[in-house]
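My main concern about presentation is that the manuscript never shows what a single data entry looks like. For the editor and my fellow referees, an illustration may be useful. For illustration, here is how one protein appears when written out as sequence plus structure tokens:

***
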Amino acid sequence: MPIDELLNGYNSAQKQEKMEKRAIPVAQRGKKVVRPIFSKLTIFSTLLVIRLLSARYATIPDCDEVFNYWEPTHYLAHNNGLQTWEYSPEYAIRSWAYVGLHAFLSRWISFLPQMSKVHEFYALRCIFAGACAWCETRLYEAISVNVNRKIGMLYLVVTMTAAGVFHAATAYLPSTFAMYTTMLGMAAFIDRRHSEGRKTVEGVFWFAIGGLLGWPFSMAIVVPFVMERLLAGICSNGVGRTIGIFIKAALGAFGVLAAVTAIDTWAYKKLEVVPLNIVMYNVFGGARKGPDIYGTEPWWFYLANLALNFNILLPLALLSAPLLVLFHFVPTSSSRQNRTSALALINLSIPFYLWLTIFSLQPHKEERFMFVAYPALCLSSAIAFHAVLSIWGAFSTFISATRVQLPLQHTLLSILNWGVLILPIAIALLISASRILAVVTGYSAPMHMYSPKYIPENETGNICFGKEWYRFPSSYFLPDGMRPRFLKSAFAGLLPGQFLEGEAGKWDRPGMWAIPKGMNDENQEDMSKYVDIATCDYLVDSFLPSMSMELSDLEPNYMLDNSTWERIHCEGFLDAAGTRSFLERALWIPGRNQSKTWGEYCLLRRKPEAVDSPPATEAGETPGEDNEEARDEL
């Protein structure tokens, strides 16, 4: 189909009539069934390939993913791991139900032949990739069948090309899990092929799974859908029937809460409602507690971060409502359908606005908090692009129909039509690919230090981390006989301790219910978490040129202590603070790699019979909060 016909089709009465017919529930259309432009199998397969690339190459920019999820999972599967204060029964603000689900998969994978712990790590990521691809396919199908096939196709292009979704898709975080269930919940509410009662109950159920098993605050994004169904239900079905539907939905959510509470109560050996504990600490924690003690950011942090990960898709999402208002008043032969469609689409744009507003108002901000809203952001971007194409299509139709024919008018108009459709997609794709490559090439070194080529599989002892504690990728990368330990650095907060090891092969680990020593919920440093450097057999350290002038006895450059340590493996690591150009540190630009400032990230091994001597006090980077790479770029 010529591009001008495609754009003009947005506003032809015939196309609009077909669009309206597609929105009618199947039960009311007889045997007529609307199908997406591409089959579910084709879309799922394509998305799966992209998500598997994320599973293989995505970094871990947030130490919370490691210490609060990978380490407890490793503990349940392999009887050792690092324990944060959140898992202490005194506080119990992490759910063993959520971790246990993944530990079950990890242990099952370990029974397969020739599977090392690193294989378990990446196999779990591949499962995340498959889950994400399936949820995206389900939302794509719901949009295509029930809203608009073109919007469904645009959503698919957006979610495939967005760098933010690439990084979030296979992260082991409750916010990523909630992102999956948000897709399923949105699909359920959008799907008009089922009865009002069924889609409401199913939609609330999926959001409840994401909030009660994953992250409680993620349930805020369901509010616009619930309000829309409540008002529509009262108007069409009456108060009594609508209340009955929502009682069924509430019972489903209560069933999820009961199951999660039962598992956590068994694990902690006392009654614990973990979702409630999370809300109480983060909202009503009191003085010197709560999320703000871990750092605060300005109100524009999320706008800057989303712009970095979604480029031109972010302004499209932010402009979706104004563009739909303009689309509402576009004069076409099918203006009545435009008005109906615009009002319905504005309702689908509200969740992203709501989420961004709520979390921008919170002082403590982290990139992962936005993961839940990524599906809504992608859908809002697709809706906005649809509105742009519709408005341009009306203008293109008007120009084509004018009696005044300019030279080469048709050719120029065709070129403009192609530009309006293809150029935004091409720009988004290129910038997103550049962003992904920049992160992978600049910050992947911590994932490559622990290969059997560098640390034998039968090795035992301690591997130590000073200022690089927050880039440790988890015990899944270490041999069974090795344990991660911490050296004192400039960081003065609370580091994880060691889970109490129990009897191998049992699920009832003592670390789940025994109260550990040295834990607190105020981020106060506990010196018992540190070891003497003389006990370290291996050490992971980095050196960044931008920090070379900051001398520190706590953060020396261990790589210069050749009498004690030998380099086993080193890789380049982007010195974001030392790379002056924002574009060069934020994006991968062909031919500009050497103009960046690079440091070294190294695995060191103690030399035989080495005597510890004070290393050179040429300090490396001082650790800070999570998402440091993104913060440096911003």
Summary: Residues 291-402 form one domain. Strands lie at 82-83, 460-465, 481-486, 497-498, 538-543, 565-574, 598-606. Confidence is low (pLDDT under 50) at residues 1-6, 9-31, 617-632.
